[in-house]
Write a structure and sequence with these properties.
2 helices; mainly beta; globular; 13% helix; single chain; 119 residues; 5-stranded antiparallel beta sheet
C-alpha cells in the first residue's frame, strides 16, 4: 500500500521525500514564489530553493535559511547558487504532532548524491 505522501505528493520537497537518507545537492536557484498558506488560508510569498538533479524545490523558512548559510559558508542568499549543501530528514514536534521535515548542513561523508530526478 502507498504511504500518505505517495498518495498525495507535495508540490515542494518535504522530509518524507528523502526516504530517511541524507543527500548532497547543488543549489541551482533561489526564488520567492506565491503559494497558498494553509494556516492563514491566504496566498503568501515564500522562499524556495531549487537544486540540480531534483524535480521539486524546497520551501525555506528562517531556520533552514540559517542552516544553508552556515553549511555553505555564505552571508546572503545570492551566494547560495552553485554551492553544495546536504539535505537530510528529521522529525520535529509542530502543531501538536510529529512531522518529518528537511534540514540542511555542511556536506558529510555519509551523505549520498541522489540519482537524477530522485525527488
Amino acid at each position: 500500500m502507498p504511504t500518505l505522501n505517495e498518495m498525495f505528493p507535495s508540490q515542494y520537497l518535504n522530509g518524507e521525500d528523502l526516504k530517511g537518507k541524507p543527500y548532497v545537492l547543488k543549489i541551482r536557484r533561489v526564488v520567492i514564489e506565491e503559494i497558498f498558506d494553509q494556516k492563514k488560508k491566504a496566498k503568501a510569498k515564500k522562499w524556495v530553493v531549487y537544486f540540480e538533479d531534483a524535480k521539486k524545490g524546497c520551501l525555506v523558512g528562517k531556520t533552514q535559511a540559517g542552516q544553508i548559510m552556515e553549511g555553505t559558508g555564505t552571508k546572503v542568499s545570492e551566494e547560495w547558487v552553485g554551492k553544495t549543501i546536504e539535505i537530510y530528514p528529521t522529525s520535529v514536534l509542530a502543531f501538536g504532532e510529529q512531522h518529518c521535515v528537511p534540514r540542511f548542513r555542511k556536506p558529510s561523508a555519509q551523505a549520498v548524491t541522489p540519482p537524477p530526478a530522485a525527488f
